[in-house]
Amino acid sequence: MGAGQLFELFRASRDHARTVFMPFMTAGIPDAGKSLGVFEELAEAGADAFEVGIPYSDPLMDGPVIQAASTRALAGGMTFGGGLDLAGEVAKSTGLPVIVMTYVNPILQIGPEEFAGQAKMAGVAGVIIADVPFEESMLIKVALDDVGIGIAMFAAPTTTEERLRSIAGAEPAFIYAVADMGVTGRRDQLRSDLEDMVRRIRAVTSIPMVLGVGISTPDQAREASQLADGVIVGSALVSEVMESGGVPSAEAFADAVHAG
Amino acid sequence: MTLPDSGGRFGEYGGRFAPETLMDTLTELEKAFLEAWADPDFKSEYQQLLADFVGRPSPLFAADRLSDRIGVRVLFKREDLNHTGAHKINNTIGQALLARRMGKPRIIAETGAGQHGVATATAAALLGMKCQVYMGSKDIARQALNVYRMELLGTEVIPVTTGARTLKDAVSEAMRDWVASAGDTHYIIGSVVGPHPFPLIVREFQKVIGEELKEQLAGTPVDLIVACVGGGSNAMGIFFPFIGTEVELVGVEAGGEGIESGRHGASLSHGRPGVLHGAHTYLLQDEEGQVLEAHSASAGLDYPGVGPEHAYFKDAGLVRYESVTDAEALGAFHLVGELEGIIPALESAHAVAWVVREAKVLAGKTVVINMSGRGDKDVEQIREMEGG
Fold first, then answer.
1. pLDDT higher than 60, residue B1
2. What kind and span of H or E run contains B131?
3. A191–B contact, CB cutoff 8 A
């Protein structure tokens, strides 16, 4: 369990040259009762790990699709505690590593230690905090380290080499490399300088790196999978659940990532 | 300039809780601001525009009839006489000049009632920059005249339809735009809120209010300075030069329909510390940290957070924070009109209302109230509220 599960995940991926497919899904859609089923469907389609998005009132990093999903989930009674519980059920039901994606304020309200304890109880492997750059992450990282849960840290196309060194030096469980500037959501194509960012990160560290934000078609996912240890697909799948309750394209995404 | 520290902290408040995609932009902005602010040419261009375009210094006016009525000597710092009708322009002129210096031809901003939007549109027109303003669709409906003003000034107003469709959502949407567009765009935030360096930048551009006041008083003793607090920029502007002096400083928040109703905007008096829009500060939130909507008849105070330096002032006991209700503010709005021939902004009327309410305790004292804006924008709303 915990960060060890992530370590194994990425080691196996490198051993077998098989990129990790890590879909993002908001907890609590299409409704609270059917949410677990969506994750099970994603597992069936070939997910290797999950990013469970805990809905938040002010999702600064998210575009319209995930904002709408958060609003619907909150209106349907999903809570921060409920999101952690669901993450635990997903881990139990699928046996796959579960990474929780949240914003920082709910963590500060219960306190980093209490949060780490609850995440540990739920069986969470890792945590992504969208609005915490590495400078502000240390208190929370220490609490998570204490219970053996991994924390991800971000790198962006604009992150300088000096910052990359500091980020790598903080030893996150993995680096979430932001594939495009801007909020989550659909893009027509990947950035032309994506390889350049990946090369700059690789030059500094061998910590596992996943690409996410704006990867919205299987073709883009295949392209991204050739550059990274893992690929996150979010809005494209979330919008399917919002519209139909299911994830019909998940298998195509999984195949594309695994083929890359 | 002792605070914020290098991490943008005012004690435990402030900081930079921003996505990694903004960190480089914020660092660049901090560097550019500090360089510009230390450059005499930049400062003199800013001050020249404040004089010739904004009409500064704003007068200090003795409100004698109000003083006689309540038994407290009241002076108004007349920010309502600034071009565009409020203190907001002090900041937008400064930040627009900074954007031009940084080579960014596009400006974005958020606005609630539209005052900051109009002030930003004005600065953008003055300097020939492209400008887009995010505004909640609910605010667009209730402030149609200010939307038209911005359009007359060549600005495009972009409706925000997420959340409660008010100021908080407009700030979020402007930040989302900026994450993707920072290469050619500067975000002129409207108050002393947001991630570092914004609270610092806006304070530095607004502190001209308090500096002028110090000069105008020329040693005349003053007991209190009172200002309304939403995000807190007019209060910061007038308080900052007086922090640590003998003068008592009082910030007045929006009590809305009454604190006990739960429908208010008093984040300092009745909120808890947390993170909103990139800063650690006091905010209105539920048990598990979801941010709540603020409620105030005054759109400029209708914000669930507050500038982090105010949070620091509160904990350090440097400023006292109180609140008055919509009804009390409305009473003061009429009183100032009838006794002084000044129709105040509903925001500024909150500061007056607190002094009126506390008149017995303040009897015989001298109080400066920051008349942060004029009330033309509120006339139609108040006529509707009162069934006129």
1. no
2. strand B130-136
3. no
Q: Which two tokens stand for residue B156?
A: 């495009």
Q: Beta strands B156-160 and B366-371: pairing type?
A: unpaired
Q: How far apart are CA B274 and CA A221, in angstroms?
A: 36
Rounded to a whole number of angstroms, the distance from the CA of B198 to the nearest CA of chain A is 16
Asked if the Cβ–Cβ distance from A133 to B175 is below 8 Å, we say no
Q: Which uninterrupted H or E stretch holds B88?
A: helix B88-101
And the tokens for A127? 């945590």
Task: For A184-221, write each residue's pLDDT tens digit.
Answer: 998 999 998 999 999 999 999 999 999 999 999 999 99
What does the pLDDT look like over B121-140, one tens digit per residue?
Answer: 999 999 999 999 999 998 99
CA–CA distance, B116 with B92 (Å, rounded to integer):
8
Kindly list the residues from chain B whose CB atom is less than 8 angstroms away from the CB atom of residue A180: 180
Buried b (16+ CB within 10 A) or exposed e, A24-39: bbbbbbbebeebbebb
Residues 6+ apart with CB under 8 A from A216: A185, A186, A187, A233, A235, A236
What b/e string do you get for A119-139 counting C-beta neighbours within 10 Å, with b at 16 or more? bbebbbbbbbbbbbbbbbbee
Tokens of A140: 């929370």
ipTM (interface pTM): 0.95
